[in-house]
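Can anyone check this?
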Amino acid sequence: MKEVVIIGSGLGGLSCGVILAKNGYHVTILEKETQAGGCLQCFVRDGAKFETGMHFIGSAAEGQTLNRLLRYLEADVKLSQLDTHHYDVISLKGEHFAFANGRETFIDTLSTAFPDQRENLVRLFDIIERVAKASSLHSLEHTETDDALNTEYQLKSINEVISSVITDEKLQNVLVGNLPLYAAEKDKTPFSVYAFIMDFYNQSAWRVVGGSDHLAKSMIATIEKYGGQVLTRKKVTEIVCDEEKTTGVTCEDGNSYAANLVISDAHPSVTVELVKSRLFRPAYRKRIQNIPNTIGGFAVYLHFKEDEVAYMNYNFYGYNQSTPWGCENYDAATWPKGYLYMHLCEEEGQKYAKSGVILSYMQMKDVEKWKGTKVGRRGKEYEEFKHQHAEKLLDSLEKEFPGLRSHIASYTTSTPLTYLDYTGTPGGSMYGVAKDVHAGAAARVHHRTKIPNLLLTGQNINSHGILGVLVGTMVTCGEVIGSEQLFHQIVNDKKSVVIGGGLGGLFTGALLAKEGYQVTVIEKNRVIGGGLQTFSRHGVNFETGMHLLGGIRKDGAIYKICEYLGIMKDLKIHDVDADCMDEITYISDGKTYHIPEGKENFIRYFQSEFPEEKQGIRDYVEELYHIVDEIDFFYLRTENEHIYSHDEKFYWPADKIVEYYFKNPKLRDAISYMNPMFGGSAGHTPGYISALINVLYINGPSRFVSNSQQMAEALARVIEEGGGKIVSGDPVVKIDIEGRQMKSVTTESGRQFSGENYICAIHPKQLLRLTDAKAFSKAYRNRINEAPNSFSSFCVFCIFKPESFPYINHTCYLQMDYGKVWHYGEYDAKDWPRGFMYMTPCEDHQGPYARKMIINSPMPYSVCSKWADSRTGHRSEEYEEWKQEHLDRILDRMEMIYPAFRDKCEYVFASSPLTIRDYYNEPEGALYGLFKDCEHIAESQVPVFTKVRNLFMAGQNCNVHGFCGVPLTAINTVEAIVGINRVTNKINEAYERSK
């Protein structure tokens, strides 16, 4: 692996580190200060937080340039958008003008004040957009143009171009009102700089919630994730070279770092001084050291009294003169000629500001006499100088914001000397090397140096600001990994939005992440996982759905998928007893069956119990395996999407298959005991559903140890490590579809997400409620809305007194009598519950005693539908009485097989179909989604494809429900996007390599 050393941890250094680390390089970043981040750093005074350099950013809306760059850099930061009607306010001697986001709105807003300039504003914006888009690096859009257009406007100054288009002098001045963002000088700064800045912020303007250091911390975490490191207090004193190239660096502490490549994020003049070698000729050194830099700055950091200053969701540029030009040329009597005033955003929807900053130009010569001193040790005269200048700035600000002074709790200041100490930029320059139309190429610094493996990055290479620096980063890293390859990586980032963070949504998202997609999973609940969720009562964790696992033993389909995703090592799994995977007790005759795992063991056991049905038992089990063998996806075999051929019993009702092979009514019932695992109904449930579940668990079931949430978290990590994110506690409320193409989804909080494709992993009825009536045909809507759902469940949760109830390492089924197993979807108050399944979940370091039990008894939703309009935690006393009655009935049944069962319980509570409906967002609390009906098979399940071209379905309503069926369906969904058999082949190949 190639070793890369990066000098400096500013935005340029960190972004280079992320890109190279993602491309397989071992990155070490060396930072001289105690805090990494350069101008991304923040500091705290008197409990208030302040940003040092990067106060706001642009083009960060979905799909815009910076949004795509940050996503590629895996920057996990929250952004708060500035007021779109006036993200910048310009004040020329007290007369205010607003910059609004969007070309048309910007023009409309300024045309109100300058109606005769509308056409000229249109012409100016045409030029701005042409220049901005002429650089594919700035727009991330492929362009057929070359650099000619850019070059033309690099040789013309800002005021030259604006005055040639805009005829109103006041408007000319308004249009450059934000020039403190780039320290422009009249007749010097190229128009191209202005065009890039204006286009960047006019698309959208944002602040980083909590401060710009969050961006630095996020990139550092990404670098470390890919095996790199960021070291602070590592001041580089020399870039070591041999006769041809650099071999590494040495630091002030005596440590050396060897490198195949060195990238310097320090100012070019500082970098040149670090190279003692003759590989840098005197002429090169002289040119670099003589390039002029932009002006420095004086800042007043304001700490406001609590809840007294309204948060200002825009930037304010105040000028004590009629033009923004010339603020760098001042004397003691005229300073400050202008300033920029902003607030820090601490949280989304902020009402009051806790801190703010006022920035104004300041020449280094003003503080030259204190050069050589250190921060905090410059003396009383220096402190008085800062105080006087701070008061002058506050006087100017007070004119625009009367009474503001009285709301200031405290303030602190910085000068160009402060900036010099913390960033190392010569002269305390705010933006490094100054661009000058007259100097041309002589004022530019190339990313390549005279040393072949020493490159430069940062604000001096292309331009300053977050976009300018990141474009410079692309140029620098493109030199290393190939500019074409890097550009392809960034612009071809594939994005998917998954609605629903249950088992189906998470597996689909994780598999897409493995395919290189940037996945956003949106889950309505605060806790992700759906049926994987775990909740806590009285300090004990309970699983909500995934109590029993099939296919996760070695060689099983789910095991292979988890190995491919790299999460198997993160899961704690415990196998049930091989000689008794399931236990069935019939109250009517007192008979208990202890059923072993394994196909042959299963057959022999039932043959021993019902010897007269010996051949039928073997034929039946062989039939189940034969049916399942026809389902390629169950075994992760590649499929031919055009050929479907099934045995006639494949779509037979499952109970009919049982009757076909057996005459004994007790055997018919006992061998169908797994019915609660798939919601079977006499005459309707397809044979293949029963076959899949039976084969899955006959092959050997397992359990999660401690909780099932671990799988949800493991899948979420795969998505996040692939650059995606999980958005929880924010339900989707609207889906925007135009012309059979999905455009975006909007959540309850107002956030909007868009992607290349979308996956719906929620119940299709819920999908329809989120879309416009025109999005799907009336026939499709009617079919989905009228389709019946599977039955639900009444659940009882027990917490045992210590050492009072034994741990049972298998699943138990209680049946009141034979002949009831295919009729769980029916309810009769006289004999409910007819049966249920119960289990003691496995804890860490499980001993001989159980801590808890979960009892699930099938129940149709209609039993509690009278309370359908209520929500969990807010139901009537009548409902609570009803629930207690049904809970007691189940406990009565448990007492039949475990006398004094109630006495062993410390706490007992229950949930109903309404609870399942509320938490899973499943209509009618359906355990298994749409009711699968062999008489209407096409109508009872949903294909992964939809009529909307980029919308796909996932989850239990597509193929088969359950811990095995849903992940396998996720493969179908992903392959509908990336190509048939592509994922299946990768999973199998990875598994073969791991053997």
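Reply from J.R.: I decoded it. Residues 142-149 have pLDDT under 50 and may be disordered.
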